[in-house]
Amino acid sequence: MIPKKYTSYEEIDRDLKVLRLQKEIDREHLKLSAQRIKRGFYPTELLGGVGGVLRKFMVSVVVGKLLKKLG
């Protein structure tokens, strides 16, 4: 990376302000990502995926029993 040459303190101040704002934005993105990861480990989230599998299994069991009775 080629170092930037500044001609005034205003340019330096502007770039510093932009860098501070970018740092804040990056920090907030990191916080949101951490919250999403935590939410993924909540019991309701973990069971949500298992619940779908259990529902499909139960439906197949019920349908199998119905077919046996009809057949």
Topology, pairings included?
Elements: H1 9-40, H2 43-70
Pfam families: DUF6327
InterPro entries: DUF6327
Protein name: Glutaminyl-tRNA synthetase
Distance between the termini: 76 Å
Number of domains: 1
- Strand percent estimate: under 5%
Largest sheet: none
Number of helices: 2
- Rounded to an integer in angstroms, the radius of gyration calculated over CA atoms is 28 Å
Low-confidence stretches: none
What structural class should be given to the helix and strand makeup?
Answer: mainly alpha
- What sort of overall outline do the alpha carbons produce when their principal axes are compared? rod-shaped
Mean pLDDT equals 85
The level of helicity is over 70%
Total strand segments: 0
Report the order of strands and helices: HH
Organism: Pseudozobellia thermophila
Pfam families: DUF6327 (PF19852)
Protein name: Glutaminyl-tRNA synthetase
InterPro entries: DUF6327
Question: How would you describe this protein?
Answer:
The chain is rod-shaped. It has helices spanning 9-40, 43-70. It is mainly α and 71 residues long. It has one domain (9-70). The protein contains two helices and no strands. The model has no long low-confidence stretch (mean pLDDT 85).
